[in-house]
Design the sequence.
């Protein structure tokens, strides 16, 4: 496919003093350098994402789902994306409530699209968060990318906005190559026929 895929990078943490924007900025730079994507970064700290959801399910309400006006921009970006990259820390062996709230406010926006993960944390590098997110996105009929990026002990492993590991950019390229392949394949498939049963 000639046109670049639209990649939405989501900063999942809204905690004060969070490291997510630094990781996301580096990941966005890798994606732009890769060349396969138009990149847009969504910071959940800038969006209105309430924890209380309407009684109706977004699966059945579709475009009529009553989302807050402050979520309109995020919803539009998710709907227009061909691929996602989730930047998440690990809190208590899982991912942030802000990220779960964003996911639960949406349904069809994730369907038949690839999702990659960039995680950071202590010794585990956020891997527990990613394992939980993979289960969630499988339920939403998304395709998760096997080779993610994990940054253990990020507080000593980064300097000046970049990881100290000289091989990190190479790992990022592998992730982005796989994400591009899936984005192309799934975009082509969605253009041919609606995804069955998921939306």
Sequence:
């Amino acid at each position: 496919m000639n046109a670049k895929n639209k990649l939405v990078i989501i900063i999942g943490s809204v905690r004060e003093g969070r490291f997510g924007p630094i990781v996301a900025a580096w990941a966005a730079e890798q994606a732009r350098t890769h060349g396969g994507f138009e990149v847009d970064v969504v910071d959940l700290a800038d969006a209105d994402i309430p924890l209380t959801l309407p009684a109706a399910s977004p699966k059945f309400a579709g475009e009529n789902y009553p989302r807050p006006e402050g979520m309109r921009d995020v919803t539009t970006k998710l709907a227009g994306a061909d691929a996602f990259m989730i930047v998440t820390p690990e809190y208590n062996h899982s991912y942030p409530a802000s990220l779960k709230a964003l996911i639960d406010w949406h349904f069809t926006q994730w369907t038949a699209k690839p999702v990659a993960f960039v995680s950071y944390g202590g010794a585990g590098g956020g891997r527990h968060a990613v394992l939980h997110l993979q289960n969630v996105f499988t339920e939403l009929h998304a395709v998760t990318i096997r080779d993610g990026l994990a940054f253990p002990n990020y507080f000593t492993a980064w300097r000046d906005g970049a990881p100290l590991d000289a091989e990190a950019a190479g790992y990022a390229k592998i992730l982005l190559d796989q994400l591009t392949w899936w984005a192309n394949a799934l975009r082509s498939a969605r253009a041919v026929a609606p995804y069955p049963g998921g939306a």
Summary: The longest helix spans residues 168-192. The mean pLDDT is 95.
